[in-house]
Amino acid sequence: LVWMAGGLTLAALNPMALANGWNMPEGVTALSRDIYSLHMIIFWICVVIGVIVFGAMFYSLFRYRHSRGAKAATFHEHTSVEVIWTAIPLLILVAMAVPATATLKTMYDASEADLDVMVTGQQWRWRYDYLGEDVAFTSNLGTPREQISGTSEKGENYLLEVDEPLVLPVGQKVRLLLTSDDVIHSWWVPDLAVKQDAVPGFVNENWVRIDEPGIYRGQCAELCGRDHGFMPVVVEAVEPERFEEWMAQRKEAAQQEAMSADREWGLDELMARGEQTYGAVCAACHQPDGSGSPPAFPALAGNQALLEEPDRHISTVIDGVAGSAMPAFRNTLSPVEIAAVVTYERNAWGNDAGDSVQPSE
Ligand code: CUA
Predict the structure, then answer these.
(1) The ligand 1 atom nearest the CA atom of 227
(2) Using CA positions, which residue lies closest to atom 1 of ligand 1?
(3) How many CA atoms lie within 13 A of 327 on its CB side?
(4) pTM
(5) Under a CB-based contact definition with an 8 Å cutoff, are residues 341 and 275 in contact?
(6) Residue of 89, 135, 196, 228 with fewest CB within 10 Å of its CB?
């Protein structure tokens, strides 16, 4: 234990090790810097205590060793020593508790936010709803595994990419409301000093006010099943004007997608859209060729009972299958995407080739 503690202390003190990310990051929010300095203060207090305690112990072991004829002293009670070793730790604990309590108070105060974002964990992706803005999307819906590892802006390896980051304005207080559709996940971004569990049936609160524009990366920090290691978080912090532009674009795109559900779609365009959606969403479990991974993920190819009943097929996609691994895609996919993917599956593997399902249905 002593050697381990010594080794860790030396490693932590080495400036190279600090620069190489052995320490926690200072982060890019006032709160993350508070937490960082708290961590450093407590770290140095512990180093000083460790040096004094271990120093006294090794000195005594050496100086009063048996071979030098030292004999153990026998005495009982020493009031002033006992008062000193009670009072000093008490003072140290109070000195650590005061700034720690102040930081904790700030951390738990998510009130008066400028923006509310609902974060929903799903096996194995994150959905973001900008509450009151009618903007919502799933961040890492179908990023192929091969494409998600790479090198970050800071030169770190093995980070995971998403197809759409969570975009947030700098300088504004953003309240994060975290929940889950299935199992417990944890939304973790070290640079923002946020690691918050997303628990089904509960809504947890956290908040962030980012100081510097940039891309901040994290990942799910709660073991949540097969693809836990492929559930990245990417936050892109932008200037408020840029954020407003982005928000306007998102709203426009959402409106167009909603309007396009009302028109008649041709078979070819549904097939193209369906193939894309199937590859991005369904293929992860049901395989690109529809062969599935039974028993958890049934084959779609050859499943005529499903493919020949459009109503059942559509409701399976929209509502999911209770008690199985099939989630509800009601909020994840648009009506056009649902119609397209059902059309695609029917035509790719069913007997009714040439049939299409319209978004308006
Ligand atoms: Cu989600 Cu681990």
Answers:
(1) 2
(2) 185
(3) 18
(4) 0.75
(5) no
(6) 89
